[in-house]
Amino acid sequence: MERCPHCGGGDVVRGWQAGGGGAFIPLGLRVLGGGPREAPVRGELLACAGCGLVWDWLDAPRLREVLRASGTRETRERLGGGPSGGRPPR
Q1: Which pTM does this prediction carry?
Q2: What's residue 87's pLDDT?
């Protein structure tokens, strides 16, 4: 299991950023689900010149809503432990 490099939480989901930074679309959503599909991102990418890790911040409550409403059963069960509690700096 991957861990968040910021808070150490295990609620890490894979996905992609649509439209050049417009929104994060997580993998593991139901194909025919009619619920929400994306979470807005702040748009400011951070990158490590040493290892190549790239990251950004997004609306975590919205991402949890998307995963609960539109996630596959496997996705919902994997994240059933709730949010990790990590918050981005303001």
Answers
A1: 0.67
A2: 39
